[in-house]
Amino acid sequence: MSTYRAQNNVPPFIPLSQYLLHRLKQLGVTTIFGLPGEHNAPLINQIYQIPSMTWCGNTNELNASYAADGYARIKRLSCLITTFGVGEMSVLNGVAGAFAEHVPILHIVGMPPSSAQLKQLLLNHTLGKTDYDVFHRLASDICCYSAVIKDAETAMAIIEKCIGMCYSKQRPVYCGIPVNFINAMTSSHLLDIPLEVDNFVDDPSVDNLVELTLEKLYAAKHPLIMADGCAIRHDCLSELRQLATVTGFPLCATPMGKTAFDEQDRRYAGVYTGTISSPQVREVVDFSDFILVVGAMAIDFATSSFHFYYKTKNIIFLFDTFAKVTIGSKMYPDLRLKYVMQTLVCRLDRSRINYIHEAIPESIQFRVLPDPNTPLRQEWLWARMAQWFQEGDVIITETGTSGLGINQIKLPSNAKIISQPLWGSVGFSVGACLGVLIAVREEIMNGCRQPGSRTILFVGDGALQLTAQELSTIIRFHLTPFIFVVNNKGNSVDRLLNRKKLGTSPNYYDLQQWDNLALIPTFGATEYDTTRVSKVGQLDQLLNDLNFAQNSILKMVEILLPSMDGPQVLMDIIPESI
């Protein structure tokens, strides 16, 4: 069998930077995000020497971090390159969000040469001091591992560990490379040995946890399997869906676990958003006598608009690296979620299950189209979008009404949702859309995804003003998303919640209105379609157009909505008048 080096014409000795890039390529990363700078330009130059690898220069570092996040959510790993100091500091928000939501971004920082650091020279991009490790220390708290290369002898081992940790832990890793090591020659022989990224240890505590879980599964009369974010992030969907099929239990998901299950499955109740869940989902959760939360991100999740609450205390939370059993407060540390799920599915005995299948309450659907001249409202918008989505769609939603609205509906089979419900950085979705678009295009080219797969972005008008520059990168790479700008004249969720708390809606949530549709030609697009809708009939006609449904060119639709309107789950907790 031909080796990797033979297939890719890799010589016996290569620059250290090329070794790093080949390792990333072996794990499916073929586009690198970031911005060039004084200390990382030699590394970026090497990207052009690796066949099928592409440099995606972004408009700013924060947007680059969002793009790397979106890319990694599709391909399970991404790489972000910044320069020392000013560049790396600009990505902290994006990397922190990736850490919070278990997204693996390998953050490579081009640093000043070792000689300058040893001589303690005062260089630009410093804090006016000669402490060259200060930015590394700042970044280390939002990474699962961080390192700076200090010498050529250990450089390759550090790169191996950084990539391996990032992939296996599914969280960001920081790797600082002084510019003098970027082209240091190193042996390429290890490229023929697959990087060790999955070490599942047969731990006795796994046996105890699995046996206890099976006991509860077998005994439960009204069980529920709930999918949370780590089930998706840590590659457990196959085991999760197998567990669902064998048991036949009712299913639901948290906002971070949405699309972990096939949402067209009749056993799937919907998204559990705690106190603002739909009545149908609350009924299923509240009636359960045992809940297995697979891929838990938190035991109790709270936002400004809702918090989780479980009536039953008989719950097992399976996190990425540990488990918690609520009755008896048992903890099982140092576990790997995928190994636990593999073991659980392997030992499950279907004949011992006592659950008797019950019908899952149907969600309320709009059956009659309102009058075509009716102004658009959030409640009808999301019900109508649910009918337009297709199998295989990748849907990116912004923090705010879009994120809440998408949780109310069931998506087609094999659809995927990209959102940031835990970290909630406003503006994330535009940069993430770029990363998703590139990752989806690569999967289509590699035969891993059907041609014509659509990427659909929902972004609020306020969020768009934070990261609109990255639309120009989407245009530069000839990408063809559907972009729905939800224009409610500012930040409606905050307006509504403040009206509930304060009895008024402060005007500091208002924004200068942009001509959003003009952004596309302003950024240089030549093939595109833009339209603005404000009435039910206008949107319905657009979504019924078969040509519009094709992703042949970039399409932007501005949806005009009332400023004090939101998805029904949000409006239900807001007093009608104050």
UniProtKB/TrEMBL annotation:
Mg(2+) binds at residues 461, 488, 490. It comes from the Eukaryota. Residues 402-544 form the Thiamine pyrophosphate enzyme TPP-binding domain. GO terms for cellular component: cytosol; nucleus. This is HFL106Cp. One of its GO terms (biological process) is aromatic amino acid family catabolic process to alcohol via Ehrlich pathway. Binds 1 Mg(2+) per subunit. CDD domains: TPP_PDC_IPDC, TPP_PYR_PDC_IPDC_like. Belongs to the TPP enzyme family. Residues 16-118 form the Thiamine pyrophosphate enzyme N-terminal TPP-binding domain. Keywords: Decarboxylase, Lyase, Magnesium, Metal-binding, Thiamine pyrophosphate. Residues 213-316 form the Thiamine pyrophosphate enzyme central domain. It holds the Pfam family TPP_enzyme_C. The keyword Magnesium applies. Its cofactor is Mg(2+); thiamine diphosphate. GO terms for molecular function: magnesium ion binding; pyruvate decarboxylase activity; thiamine pyrophosphate binding.
